[in-house]
Amino acid sequence: MSQDAITPEHQSPPENPSRGRKRVRTRGRRIRRAILLSLLVLVIAAGGTGYWLYSQLDGNIKGVDIDKALGDDRPEKLPTSGQNLLVLGSDSRAGAENKELGGGGSVSGARSDTAMVVHIPEGRSRAVAVSIPRDTLVTRPECTKSDGTVVPSSDREMFNSVYAQVGPACVVKTVEKMSGVRIDHYLEINFAGFKGLVDAIGGVTVDVPQDIHDTSSGLDLTAGPHKLDGTQSLAYVRTRHGIGDGSDLGRIGLQQQFLFALLSEVKKQDLLGSPTSAYKIANSATKSLTTDEGLASLKSLTEFARSMNGVDPASMETIMLPVAYDKIDPNRVISAQPQAGMLWKAIREDATIPESAKKSPATGG
């Protein structure tokens, strides 16, 4: 019988629509599973390429042997499993891209434009970040440069000048001397790397607290949410003329806000779902990083990041080191007592920070 001769009563009953969709979904799962297995086979077969990519990322990371540079004259480690991480944003002018982003060729050397002591208490389910204003006057301890030159101790040095004068190990030593807090790890990111990382993840959305019109950097933002690219992000975390009293204190809140918006954005990225994006982000991040020797490998850095997975950036507490305006030079600040002492004591003991230790006489408002 021809197909045209089939009458309605001879036709097979229609399939249950839901059963049909179930078969389609099941078949779709099988196809996706087959694709994933094929990709896995290709990755295994291309083991040499995978090793090359791993080696490239691993080789991007620069290490500083903090322990060797500082020796044994250091605070005791925390009595718990808590950790303290010193994070520096370096405005190095090394290289054409950093020079352009840093504000041109008239400025030489490098400074720690942003500095945070990130304290991760025992359990690693929360964290607190203490920002040290760059204009804080500190006593720089005796330090040894990488070439072996001994630099004597000096009083009333601006905190952000220590990096340029002696290097990162001396910044760690200065923080340890002023706080009594043992720094377990060191992490530094430079201007160009910061820009590349933000661009690699497709920008970062921040809620701008007030209109910012900074003629020095060209940053022009209205209050409210904005998605910033890498160049805008750099201007945002560096602006000081567009907010508050024009001092470093006014921008610290912006830096803290942006840092956690950046961390939240990285955490939201579907890195497993997009190997290309994952590589771009990893390449941008590792190329810009300098760490202590304990983190100076992709394996160590990944393990440390995995151990921090329970920390939600959105719930991370941010504090500015309590400071007061210096009586000799009102353009500089000094640690305010007893607040700063109580703050560092709580971190040393892995204890809750008292509210009274978070209040700063100088606010930059």
Report on the structure:
The chain is an alpha+beta fold and 365 residues long. 39% of the residues lie in helices and 20% in strands. A hairpin with a 7-residue loop joins strand 3 and strand 4. It is globular and about 50 Å long. The N terminus is likely disordered.
Defining key terms:
single chain; about 375 residues; alpha+beta; 7-stranded mixed beta sheet; two-stranded antiparallel ribbon; 12 helices; 17 strands; globular; disordered N terminus
Structure at a glance:
The protein has 365 residues and is of the alpha+beta class.
How is the topology of this model organized?
Layout: H1 17-45, H2 47-60, E1 62-64, H3 66-70, E2 83-90, H4 96-101, E3 112-120, E4 128-131, E5 137-140, E6 143-144, E7 150-151, E8 154-158, H5 161-165, H6 168-179, E9 185-190, H7 191-200, E10 204-208, E11 212-214, E12 219-221, E13 224-228, H8 230-238, H9 248-268, H10 275-287, E14 289-292, H11 298-307, E15 317-320, E16 323-325, E17 333-335, H12 339-348
Parallel strand pairs: 1-14, 2-9, 4-15
Antiparallel strand pairs: 2-3, 3-4, 5-8, 6-7, 9-14, 10-13, 11-12, 16-17
Helix pairs in contact: 2-10, 7-8, 7-10, 8-9
